[in-house]
Amino acid sequence: MRPRSITTSSRTFFTLSHGIVHKRDGHPHIYMAQKQQSDKSVMKTQAPTHHHQAILDLIDEQGYASAAEQFKVIDDCGLIAINSIHQSDTETYRLASDLTLYSAPSVRKHLDINKVTAPYSASSNETLHKNLSIATEIVNAITDMNILTCTHPNMNGASLYEYQSLAGRITRARTALTEHYDAVIQYSESDSKQTNYHVSKIANAIKKDPQGNCLEYSFVALDLLHEQSPFINAELYTITHGDHLFMVIDRDRASCTDDYQTWGNNAVVVDAWSNAVFSANDIPQHLTAHESHTVSFVKPYYGHDQEVTLKIDPSTTQKFNVVLPVNLNYHRLSARLFSPAPHHPDKAHAALTPTSPRHD
Fold it and tell me: Does residue 356 sit within a domain?
């Protein structure tokens, strides 16, 4: 049977959830996206739309896991499918949001080096195999550090107070390290020794107080690379519109920094925050972006004429994090920091102009 999809106006897509509906004390409670409800504090319920049956048909035909994957697809405009469903359509919204959050990564586990390297032939590219192994060891070492992060799906379900508390601590830690972040930016163009010294200062502070987001994960990864493999160059990359930072190692220095297809067969993505390692050639298949959404419970209120209205309860506001596959027609990769290998024979590479590291 041919797979079906949900079509709204001229766009066909399935995408990200901004809300969850479930029952508490026998009454429906709905998480609503504050960014879509900023100018509306009251909504009226309406009957489920035709979308609801279309989603049920999709699940029936393809299975729940396959349907859930379609709900994580970002279109070329940066939209994700639940945007096509009105939030007052509670039953459909509940179904769509459950699909979107289904199988979100929650527990980081050690990567298996054999599984990481299996898709790539060691005989045809020994250097790539070595780089993948080094990157896997780095990511596993960071996993053991248990760095607390407020932007990972691990944080989903925490109260807004818990989220804000951790986010505040991370911000204060970054502020305390401003001198070193600024120095990394200053020296990355001219002095590898100074660059790596300040990278080490930042990483040591994070190890001592293990909390942070993709920025902190990437700096620790960079420092571990300097310690374990001082002959490999590395860079930190951002995903424009994707709110994410990750490390790339052993890119061909003659290649275009923003075009992964030119980076060469030895380049490897080291995404410690996402617990992922893969060849840069496989970026379209494996790289992920991050999105964070502020949501709140709403409660039903019944009028004298039995008309139901839903009012947002600000005291129940929470944050939800979602990891989604990149769409390179929407997302853009940008090199933000070049870190030359401490003992690389060729340190005189064209320098990049990094921006202030405030990602995630």
Answer: no
Residue 164's H or E segment, with its range, is helix 160-176
**Burial of 222: CB neighbours in 10 Å, binned 0-12, 13-18, 19+:** buried
pLDDT at position 342 is 64
pLDDT score of 168 more than 90? yes
Within-domain flag for 139: yes
| Mean pLDDT, the chain, integer | 77
Q: Which domain holds residue 241?
A: 113-287+329-339
Identify the residue whose tokens are 């896997």.
136
- 321-335 burial, b at 16+ Cβ within 10 Å, e below that, comes to bbbbebbeebbebeb
Write out the two tokens for 84: 């096509």
- Paired tokens of 32: 């609503």
Residue 343, helix vs strand vs coil: coil
Q: How many domains in the chain?
A: 2
Q: Where are the beta strands (DSSP E) in the chain?
A: 7-8, 11-12, 21-24, 27-33, 42-44, 234-240, 244-249, 268-271, 276-279, 288-302, 308-325, 332-339
pLDDT at residue 34 in the model: 32
Q: What is the DSSP letter of 279?
A: E
Q: Which residues neighbour 168 within 8 Å (Cβ) at sequence distance 6 or greater?
A: none
* Pairing label, strands 276-279, 288-302: unpaired
CA 170 – CA 164 distance, rounded (Å): 10
Looking at residue 11, its pLDDT comes to: 29
- State the Cα–Cα distance between residues 308 and 45, nearest whole angstrom: 6
pTM of the shown model? 0.77
Q: Which are the contacts of 337, defined by CB distance < 8 A and separation ≥ 6?
A: 184, 185, 188, 235, 236, 352, 354, 357
Query: What does the pLDDT read at residue 134?
Result: 97
Distance CA 134, CA 234 (A): 12
Q: Are residues 91 and 204 in the same domain?
A: no
